[in-house]
Write a structure and sequence with these properties.
- The mean pLDDT is 87.
- Strand 12 (315-317) and strand 13 (324-326) form a beta hairpin.
- This protein has a five-stranded mixed sheet.
- It has eleven helices and 13 strands.
- The protein is α+β, with helices and mostly antiparallel strands and 354 residues long.
- It has helices spanning 2-9, 15-28, 33-56, 65-71, 117-126, 181-198, 203-237, 250-253, 261-266, 269-283, 327-346, and strands spanning 83-85, 90-93, 98-103, 106-112, 127-136, 139-146, 159-164, 168-172, 177-179, 241-245, 287-290, 315-317, 324-326.
Length: 354
Amino acid sequence: MSVASFAAYGLTGSVKDLRSMAYGDLKARGLGAQAAQHVIKRVVDAYTTLRAGLRAGNLGGVGSKRRRKVTSKPIAFRADAAHTYDDRCLSWNYDAQTVSVWTMDGRLKNVRFACSAGALKQLTQYRKGESDLAFRDGKWFLIATCEVPEAERYQPKDWLGVDRGIANLATTSDGDNHSGRRLDRYRRWQARKKAEIQAKRTRSAKQLLKKRARRESRHATHINHAISKTVVAVAQRTERGIALEELEGIRERVTVRRDQRARQSSWPFHQLGAFIAYKARRAGVPFIEVDPAYTSQRCPRCGHTAKANRPSRDAFRCRRCGLAGPADVVAGVNVRDRARSAWVFVNMPPPAPA
């Protein structure tokens, strides 16, 4: 299907074009009407994503070797690539925890699925739209779409500032610290293991590297989920909002030593912020991002800002008024103070027309 689309339309085939060209052939091969439609949409979506990547420059500039290689051949789909199902092709029985799935060999009924009690409750109440069937690491996964309504946002009594970092993954203005020491040891151990495997330069070594990379990614995602859940719970219990530094482009702005570059580039800072943001919306907790400039060098008591206020990475000591404390906590306090000012402007009513 992808090859035929590329041969006829290049990278620009639309759903209408492919439907008129290939729908009859897909039906003749044994696909049902809905399955044929999903195959067509899947191919069109893949080429749409590729065109967006080309426009954004993610695959190199015009004339680059990588760009020419990508645009000179059709998109290839793996034999076990994820497939999309709607309610006509896949039906759920939540009480029995089974699904009925359409296949080329007929419909498979009473296929058991496993999930936690909380996920099952959410699935029963909020599942909507299509589901993806994926095969990963020898197991089948059903990825369902749920539309969870957001809680009504309350007016915050104050703000909880959160400073994100590498040594300390998240430090709040209350002084709560989510240390990254254990995680750092785990990542260094993974890096050594990956270097040993990479030195073998075999096909099985490459497969094992991919497996380890996915495991490390899942571990980091779990840590970010746990931190964001704790932060949002504290803010909700105390009826405060959550304030974060706006860290977009931090990897381009901040320079670190050579031995620190891998740590800075590999940890998903954006993911932690995204988790806090969506959990806050679900809980009705106000959320805001503030300017991160000099939050770790500014004294929250007298306002003096200087590099000399940070004699070391972990310590803060104001050169003017003598305020001292952990640098990450001071940064969290500065984030909180900026959120207090910013929230006033965010919620300011529009000026009356002249």
